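batch_manifest entry 22 of 60
target: DUF3857 domain-containing protein
source organism: Hymenobacter nitidus
requested by: lab member K.T.
priority: normal
notes from requester: please return tokens only, no post-processing; we will run our own comparison against the previous entry in this batch. if the run fails, retry once and flag.
--- input ---
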Amino acid sequence: MISTVTRLWLFAALLVCSHGVAFAQKPGPPPLQFGAVSAADFTAPAPATDSTRAEAEYLCDYGTTKIEGSNAHFQVVFERTARLQIHRKAGYRHATVRVPLYTRDGEAEHLTRLKGFTYNLQNGQLVKTKLDGSKMFRETLDKNHLQYSFTLPDVREGSIIEFTYVITSDFVFNLQDWQFEHTIPVRWSEYRAFLPQFYTYKTITYGYRPFAIEEALDVRYSTTVTTAAQGITPGTDQHITAMAQQMRWVMKNVPAFRPEPFMTTPGDYMSSIHFELAGVNFSGDYHDLTGQWDAIWQSMSTNAEFGLALKKPVPPLTAAAEALRQRFPDSVARAAAVLALVQRSVVYNDEPRLYVSQPLRHTYERHLGNSADINLLLVQTLRAAGLPATPLLLSTRDHGQVQTVVPVVSQFNYVAAHLSLRGRPDILLDATEPQLPLGMLPERCLNGQGRLADANGRWVPLKAGGRHTEYRTAQLRLSPQGQLEGTMKLEYAGYAAVAARRQIRQSSAAEYTGQLAQRWQEWQPGAPRLVVDSLEKPVSVELALHHTLNSPDAPLFYLSLLNLPEALPYDFRAESRLYPINFGMPRDHTTVITLALPKGFVAQELPAQLVLDLPAGGGRYTYQVTQPTPESVQLLSRLQYARPVYGPAEYAALRAFNARIVAKQAEPLVLKRQH
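--- output ---
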């Protein structure tokens, strides 16, 4: 969940040198004092959440951000102080702290005033070991980010560790983010931001947990800016007083974050707060600094790694596109042919990127590229075929959701293609996935909304172009000796077919069918046979099955035929869920089993028919057992989830729905042996 707030001042006059502020409120004391650890802290009672069962926990994590005057400019000063306790050896890894820093055009943020201690209680005495701040590891993450790492010394089970540091930044637009939720419990997490009235920021909050405290106080602000020297005239100190807002956010007793099934990236769910500079007001005249999409597109259109790359044609593909234009007068058929052409020409290197890594001609010649290389090549080829294609910027599911309020291009990490045809809905295309049909994006791209990269850019819903469909049909025979034999046909369509083709492509058909046979070991499967595949048909696998029943001479047989491998792929065991269930696309699972009875057997009891519906048309489950002839029984079950996303409030209904399905599919078909 993402929420955005812009904090504006009704009047933002800057007071220089003389005037005091008549009204202010005093901020409360900090929740943590560095170095104030005693032996009593090792025996402090655990909170109600009993976080001591975790491998480690944050006792307190406290951060502040202030904007202060410097030499001819303002700078951001961020200070963090944290205290953790290590409960088990598995928690030793939390003694290593990583501090990312921003860098641009040769300038970088500075990490200073690093201090740290490890505390151990030995024979009732508190032993303190100091961090050697010179033993830091520096690494470059990318062209705009570097990272320092340090490890607290002498860490044992039961140790309390604490550290503090300051980051000084000349990038006023880059206010430090704050994360309240971690993979270990947090007893107290607090962040304060002191923002003078002449800077306005948008605050963007992620997560699903409520704040224990969320407040904004008017406080007195003062700082000194040293003006730049002019020739032989030295710079002078300019003392500034004004009003500021102190924003304060607190969360307490936050459980450890645990990934759950059907989620995107953890960052979409873990509670955090982020900032974007919206504007400045130094003289009563507000200047909006929020980026505008048209300006961003103008910049991207002249970028050699994006817009300019599209203007350099690739002759072989251009010629092929012109031929397809003549061959396929229908626009949709032509688009499908162009998509197939590019899919055949290049291979995706599994690198999601927003910008090309090489000229598009090299991508074609080397037959390899990242997502931008391939899909900008697709856009270019569609245009050469006379189709109005546009690059589509998006963020993949493992990269995080985008917010649509503040124009920020850095939140995107991927390029797909968009086609707009008169009288038709948006057509989304992606050539990174071989055999992906027209109108379908890879599952990794089904993540909220994407932005068209043109002067008239708009948001486009990244809807699934199909369902995840699995269809299983079995023809089984029961022998008088209690042997079940027959065949099972497994069919995968839509996104299930895309996933199956990817597995086959990344390994081999033999390895794919071999892994599938492993999942059916209880049925003693024969060698699976992969049916000849085409895009127009589902991926199909046929299995010969053989299963021996318990007590084959018993007068009654109890057969739970729907309890087959992967019969119910959804497991909602947790009693509650805080986060949405994100399937990515609607889902449909159908199983049809026809059982031939041997002579002398009758169906004594057929399970009752059942139809279950989720509220608001969210899904349906159908179960039916019929007897087409006295010698056969047919079982049908169909599970449909109609929506790609279900909210946390719907989890209880989903869980109850799933539990009834499990119970129903466990009901046996009762067969009687007649003498």
